């Protein structure tokens, strides 16, 4: 049976000139194969990555080398969330523990321990003001750098993310706690103000969940990412400015199925998101339009952190760390670049692959394109593209579910150009 898969398309075109985009996410050696959950940057070259099985890694040279800082505890610890208010003071949560640091993560001290709770989220607003959320709907608060804690049950759902408005100081700083289906708002400066939990209707459909929230550094809008599952598992983003009365859906035009797990907003206009199957997207206009990035992986990307608009990390499953120093995309602005660019078919990645693989091809002109998969006997088993596409870089993902292991071939045919490459499916 012939199968057609069309997952993700990225096209770039301009009227007067061509911007050829080349992704620039570089994979680094983390020293572990454990799942990495979160990342934070303390300055332009210093970052801390945390994950499962007690893993805490720190770099001071933009990830050229990573130093293991894991605690020598006698039982596994799966860290979930890390937050710093400056280069020295931070909080890390996971399992039954909240730990804090005063020296940039080089040393950690146990601040709070509960054998009944599982901590999922944290926020360090300043050295003396720390929050943590657990899986039973409680938020914990310390105003003395973690020496003592108070707690309040604010929801019946787990607290997945705690975040705050990051703009100019205003009276009554809003504080937000995010669950899978609701948002709880409270006035940071006046704790006696009652909490306000509102349903996130966009994330309340079948298979829909919210995962992480963040406001733009310097003010403007806040963003919540997750998955909208009413019709398909669609990567989902909602947005709220300070003047909005509700969180509103953002039209991303992302055609790839999957979940967005992480969001980072280093400035008022620049936002990055990451998610399952190697997804990284960014917007440079406050979330109105989004660009897909090429990354050297199909693994889940669990968190992303940009120190500024160009430098940042994303971490994921199996010890994956990606780094960019140019915002993930290099723009080559050249009025004659459409003449220099050629038809090209890249090698699929990963190869060999288990379930799905990404194929990238380049078009110097708007053209009718045929991209098909053939088995070793020459039979057409999948059509990834059979349509007119605009100039630029295009992406197709082949999901080989139900196909037997073996050698396959993919062929790109455009005008008089034809190229075939081999790929290997291993079960």
CATH architecture verdict of the largest domain: 7 Propeller
Q: From the helix content, strand content and strand pairing, which structural class follows? A: mainly beta
Biggest sheet strand line-up: 1-35-34-37-38
Would you tell me the overall average pLDDT? 86
Strand content bin: over 45%
Record field, number of beta strands: 38
Q: In CATH's first tier, which class of the largest domain applies?
A: Mainly Beta
* Rg over CA atoms: 23 Å
Number of helices: 1
Kindly state the percentage of residues in helix.
Answer: under 10%
Shape: globular
- Fourth CATH level, the homologous superfamily of the largest domain: YVTN repeat-like/Quinoprotein amine dehydrogenase
Q: How many domain units?
A: 2
Please outline the helices and strands.
Elements: E1 3-4, E2 18-23, E3 26-28, E4 36-41, E5 47-51, E6 56-59, E7 67-68, E8 79-84, E9 90-94, E10 97-101, E11 109-113, E12 119-126, E13 129-134, E14 138-142, E15 150-153, E16 161-164, E17 174-178, E18 182-187, E19 196-199, E20 209-215, E21 222-228, E22 234-240, E23 248-249, E24 260-264, E25 271-275, E26 280-283, E27 291-292, E28 301-306, E29 312-316, E30 321-324, E31 329-334, H1 337-340, E32 344-345, E33 356-363, E34 367-375, E35 380-389, E36 392-399, E37 406-414, E38 417-425
Parallel strand pairs: 1-35
Antiparallel strand pairs: 2-31, 3-30, 4-5, 5-6, 6-7, 8-9, 9-10, 10-11, 12-13, 13-14, 14-15, 16-17, 17-18, 18-19, 20-21, 21-22, 22-23, 24-25, 25-26, 26-27, 28-29, 29-30, 32-33, 33-36, 34-35, 34-37, 37-38
